[in-house]
# Entry
Amino acid sequence: MDMRLSPTAIVLFLFLLSGSAHSIVFDITTFGGAPNSDITQAFLSAWKQACASTRPSKIVISEGTYEMNAVDVKGPCKAPIEIQVDGTIQAPTNPFALDGAFQWVTIGYVDYFTLSGRGTFDGRGATAWKLQEECGTNPACTKRSMNIGFNFMKHSVVRSVTSKDSKFFHVSLLGCTDFTFDDFKISAPGDSINTDGIHIAKSTDVKILNSDIATGDDCVSLGDGNKQITIQNVKCGPGHGFSVGSLGTNPNEEPVENLIVKNCTLTNTQNGVRIKTWPNAPGTSPVTNLTFEDITMVNVYNPVIIDQQYCPFEICSKQSPSKIKISNVKFKNIKGTSETKEGVILNCSSGVPCEGVELSDISLTFDGAPAVAKCANVKPIIIGKAPSCRA
Ligand SMILES: *[C@@H]1O[C@H](CO)[C@@H](O)[C@H](O)[C@H]1NC(C)=O
Ligand SMILES: *[C@@H]1O[C@H](CO)[C@@H](O)[C@H](O)[C@H]1NC(C)=O
Ligand SMILES: *[C@@H]1O[C@H](CO)[C@@H](O)[C@H](O)[C@H]1NC(C)=O
# Structure
């Protein structure tokens, strides 16, 4: 890139580069937080001062292991704020200790927020997963907290930290704008129940980049009202893949549009890329302009799937078709191994058939032979090499 910069621009550039070096540091230890102890109060006190600071601030949690109970902090803050976690912060193992909190760590209404460091948020979810298994008999099982929730944030970044063994979803994003995950890591066993990696709802311009997600449910799931979402250079597995939906249950849902999933690898996952909508459901908001490109599947059960009759455990009626229109969806350069013969399933709604679905350079194998495509209520555009549809 050729660029001529005025001296003022150079000074401004250097100032921006050195921005974080000039932030005021609020070390958790100066608020009474010490390794091997509970830092709930220390964290809340540090947040209060940092958020009120008129200069950029940084809360630092250094190496070591800490315990923390549920915290819920809110902006607006007076200047950009960063939390740098280099230690391991542990949630109580007893799910009831979080007192029904929706999320263990909740951060909301902050602009220019950064979460950074080499540290880990350890949800210690094993007991909670066990409770979930007893859900039929134990009503307390609904009290499971997610690891981290970001609500109504703008211009924010989560970088390099790890979310581990969440009791429920790892991360939830609600109503956020311009939010980036970079080098983010999620780790939980493949059989941990409902531990979705990142769930995004009603958000615009979200990027998940260069990240590694291993968990027991969807690696990334997109609810309604999401626009301009990019998932790039992300590894998923174990897990249930990248999912749009499930959509349709709520009559007031908003459209999902402009998603790109690019250069991702899914390994030993239940699904690869999936769009799911409920039959017999009131939601009508359309799903449009999604691209899934340069994706490698390694032993994936359903590599490419549109399921507009999504009805797990047969808990719904399929009497009427989904009212959600899916259009302009491109599956491009998808290769690797399928664990089922039907590597591509396009099961669209008989009420509002899919339009503009493109299969371009799909090369998936099952047991060494090319996987097939099974389709209903859609006439995909085939470009290059791709399986043609069977009913
Ligand atoms: C694709 O993603 C992998 C990480 O999964 C990364 O190492 C590689 O550089 C990416 N390739 C391109 C062309 O961005
Ligand atoms: C489709 O989505 C991509 C990715 O967000 C975006 O760059 C592009 O402009 C969108 N196309 C239309 C027609 O909106
Ligand atoms: C679509 O889903 C229904 C319900 O799960 C199933 O009976 C049907 O075989 C599916 N069709 C295709 C083409 O996958």
Q: What stands out?
A: The first strand starts at residue 24 and ends at 27.
